[in-house]
Amino acid sequence: MAFTAFSLNLNREVFFPVMSLVSNVTPSPFDLRVPRDKHHPIIPKVNYESIIDKAHVESARRGWKEPAGSIFYAEDYGIYGVAFFYPGDDHGAAGVGPTNLYFNAEDGRYLGDRKPWESSVADIFMQMQFPLHSGRILGLPGRILISLWD
Questions:
Q1: Contact call for residues 138 and 96 (beta carbons, < 8 A)
Q2: S-S: 55 plus which of 10, 32, 82, 99, CB 3.0-4.6 Å?
């Protein structure tokens, strides 16, 4: 529990850099940008509707079956994220999370993606931290076990 809590809370500051020394870690668009001060957010020039349209085109090009299930805007990074999942499956397979596409808020260009259970060993290890911490990796029995452990 302590290790996964550490990895989740100090991911950008410690965990990601250390994992990068051990294995190939794929940086997310967030890892490639310095966040803005909370008092000076990045005002998007592209709206949610435009991003959803771009996300639908990109997901269709990739042959994804899941619909766009949620969208968010990170104002300190200037990044939109669109998650693809069926209703009720927003935590994805074993709690690793859904597939995501990321877009620039300045011009709407595609910045990258995140596919659960894919990429390098280090990427998968990093993806597993929340499911391990929450018990979701073992489904309902795992969540009960974690609840009893706390």
A1: no
A2: 82
